[in-house]
Specification:
This protein is α+β, with helices and mostly antiparallel strands and about 210 residues long. It has a domain of about 120 residues: SCP2 sterol-binding domain (Nonspecific Lipid-transfer Protein, Chain A, 2-Layer Sandwich). It is built from six helices and five strands; from the N terminus they run ααββββααβαα. A five-stranded mixed β-sheet has the order 3-2-1-4-5. α1 packs across α2.
Length: about 210
């Protein structure tokens, strides 16, 4: 391999490695930070692709928002929604220090609304913002763990309640059946009583007629 090929391969390999690290970190933040997830919803739903072009030093890479996270790649996607031109130093200032001046210095081509939303969103991925919210991630995780453990503790009780409820339902059905039977018996008894009374009346009338 020639020296020129080595000089080209090493920076590309370094950039690819850095992009893999950024993809892992940014996707993790996107999935665990509720505010960022809400901010990114439009980007994720529309699968927004962004080209980042650094001119000092020169390199290009692409960000694509996806339901699985934020994908970083050196290969251009089918469509590019925003094109950002900046410097490596400004990118470092934004990610490490949340420097708003560096955000304003970025030259962005694309939809005007999407540009403003991206400027706000990129600051949310900065270290100061992430470090200010990491306790909420732990609290949320602890709440989920407590909820799971509570569900496990009350699961037997819920099973017993369901069993008792099913027994009560079956007893209610039996009670309704007994009530229906009693109503039928009472109705039949009334009919029998009416028949007896009718027979007695007829007999009395016949007796009266014969006695007269």
């Amino acid at each position: 391999m020639s020296d020129s090929q080595q000089n080209t391969t090493v920076p590309n390999l370094l950039l690819t490695t850095i992009l893999i690290v950024f993809e892992t970190i940014f996707s993790f933040i996107l999935k665990h930070d509720r505010v960022i997830a809400l901010q990114s919803k439009k980007f994720v739903d529309n699968r927004v692709s962004i080209k980042i072009n650094s001119y000092i030093p020169y390199f290009d890479f692409y960000m694509q928002f996806d339901s699985h996270g934020i994908l970083f790649d050196t290969t251009p996607p089918i469509k590019v929604d925003l094109e950002v031109r900046t410097t490596l130093m400004d990118l470092i200032q934004i990610i490490v220090f949340a420097n708003r001046r560096s955000v304003r210095a970025m030259r962005i081509d694309g939809d005007s609304i999407l540009k403003d939303e991206f400027r706000d969103l990129i600051l949310s991925f900065s270290l100061p913002h992430v470090f200010s919210d990491w306790k909420q991630w732990l609290k949320q995780s602890a709440d989920i763990d407590n909820l799971i453990s509570s569900e496990k503790r009350i699961a037997p009780l819920l099973d017993k309640i369901d069993f008792q409820r099913s027994k009560i339902n079956s007893l209610e059905i039996e009670v309704k059946q007994y009530k229906n039977r009693i109503k039928r018996i009472e109705r039949n008894q009334k009919i029998i009583n009416y028949v007896y009374i009718s027979i007695i009346i007829v007999l009395l009338v016949v007796l009266l007629m014969y006695t007269i």
